[in-house]
């Protein structure tokens, strides 16, 4: 394949469209969350991911798993956790079976803020998708997003 290969060009255009859609959605949600709840998209995502933990076996995520879930480096995730911890929305504690492990839990204040912010996130997502669906290049991607099902935990 060469750089001018039509398959590569189509693939590149598809990737650009996907990146554009993701950027527009994130920017729209970011503005809504910041304006109404003083939360960034990453902060909301982190609270959401951590709120889904449970106390049973495998119920708590290690920081690397959290970083992967919110699509940040481990150092950026640690800084994000620290910011939310400073706001009283998260708390860290040592793993009871491995003193080297540190877990992070959402506080009651964090859960309350998350519940207040969830409708804003969902509405902003719907608005961003509706707007993107008007663009013929993005409409197929919007339809694909709308038909995706959440992965079933193993």
Q: What share of the residues lie within helices? A: 55-70%
Mean pLDDT: 89
Radius of gyration: 18 Å
The total of beta strands comes to 2
User: Low-confidence parts lasting 5 or more residues at pLDDT below 50?
Assistant: none
- Apparent shape: globular
Report the end-to-end length measured between terminal Cα atoms. 38 Å
Counted by DSSP, the helix tally is: 6
Largest sheet: 2 strands, antiparallel
Which class best fits the helix and strand makeup? mainly alpha
Q: Strand order across the biggest sheet?
A: 1-2
**Helix and strand run:** HHHHEEHH
User: What proportion of the residues form beta strands (DSSP E)?
Assistant: 5-15%
Question: Would you write up a description of this structure?
Answer:
Strand 1 and strand 2 (102-106) form a beta hairpin. Helix content is 64%, strand content 6%. The chain has six helices and two strands. It is globular, with a radius of gyration of 18 Å. The chain is mainly alpha-helical and 154 residues long. Helix 2 packs across helix 5, helix 3 packs across helix 4 (74-86) and helix 5 (108-133) packs across helix 6 (139-147). Strands 1-2 form a two-stranded antiparallel ribbon.
